Amino acid sequence: MQHVVRHPPSSALSCVPRIRDAGARIGGPNPYPSMAIPTVVLLPLWSAGHLMSLLEAGKRLLACAGGKLSLTVLVMPPPTEQLAAEVQGHIRREEASGLDIRFVHLPAVEPPTDFRGIEEFLSRFVQMHSPDVRAAVAALPCPVAALVLDFFCTALLDVSRDLAVPAYVYFTTNAAMLALMLHLPALHEEVTVEFEEMEGAVDVPGLPPVPPSSLPKPVMDKKNPNYTWFVYHGRRFAEADGIIVNTAAELERSALAAIADGRCTRGGRVPAVYPIGPVISFEPPPEQPHECVRWLDAQPPASVALLCFGSGGFFAKPQAHEIARGLECSGHRFLWVLRGPPAPGERRPTDANLAELLPDGFLERTKDRGLVWPTWAPQREILAHAAVGGFVTHGGWNSTLESLWFGVPLVPWPLYAEQHMNAFTLVAAMGVAVAMKVDRKRDNFVEAAELERAMWELMGGSEEGRKAREKAMEMKAACRNAVEGGSSDAALHRLAEQLYTGAV
Ligand code: UDP
To answer: Which domain holds residue 320?
Structure first.
């Protein structure tokens, strides 16, 4: 086990929303004058959407605690070299930030090979790390305020219990999804057939009736261990001391109320819920503007539709051709971040070979109003640009929050994980998105004409699109108020106080 660097404390948090310094308020004088200050131990997953979100939440806690808490991040060695390199890059950047964060690298374990899906893989892989997590936490030289576990890590609640350390779950996605997962053990008993075979909609407290076709991928096949693990996590959430959710009260009042009053857990124990979001990790802008940003500089305000599909979204040639036709017919300006299928043995998309993926002449015909970007793009910077007027997105929750942060309405195109549920929530519960027909039975295929129609609505062609834009602007104001002295800031302070007083 390798202990890595402890940096001098610093109050500088670049580009983070202003967070009141509660150091003077939380817990009174430090009861550990002669010892190191209590540490909050974070256990993130390694993918950017999970790791960066939990790290950012941790950094906001640090800022809020005003020097009375430190952060320790336990790093599970990622299962592929590509992911390991990405994680190492993130760690190096954090180490250079000068904040009071200690990274502890756990020993590698042999990853499971006989798994049937990513959710099963992650849950089992994490569980295999239990002895190392236990040893690492027990060896820490300072009081431990709590373990904060990514929501795939609930098996480690046993470690926290063994060590008598408070445990919190960090839920990287939204309250709608949390309501569903907390309710899943009850649904598991009530609905004995596959959800798709049941009559009517699924009743999730706090949400409009959910069509079974909008449920997240891992619960669509009850015979798959992914489903069993989701029920397991949903059950175990209730054992945590608290659940930290990357949402704001103003975004999801109804779902949060249903969780808080016990409707999701059938009146059973409900941990304290802390909606501290939007937790978005912003980096300072680079010295030289990115090529995508330079291209946007030359476009009129709110005229460009961004198409970008997260860290895992990619398209093969038939779908790429369909998108190209839809974009061409729509006549709209667009910035399309297009990735190609993963290399053999890898999970992550490759940079797109545009000559192979796109129809002949497409780039030439659309060169005055479109840019196709074949690799990772600076999505937050792009969404922040005044030229961007709409976002066609896979609907990952980080991307969604980033879009709302800048008041950009969405067209969700769910591809994997919980994104079908997010698409439903964004359209039916939050009203910030225009619906688009995605054929789930054909690998989430979207026809060119359907994309063209949805883009026309998104860019202001229909009343529905205009309402989504208005609502997105309302959410922009709500998000900013929430973290800058409003509800999320208050939740963060309650959490800091709770962590500090719980330190053992
Ligand atoms: N992202 C980016 N550039 C890209 C694709 C994705 O910066 O080309 C970022 C995006 O801004 C977001 C994260 O990657 O912060 C994706 O997280 P999300 O939860 O939306 O989706 P996931 O990748 O976890 O499916």
So the answer is: 291-480
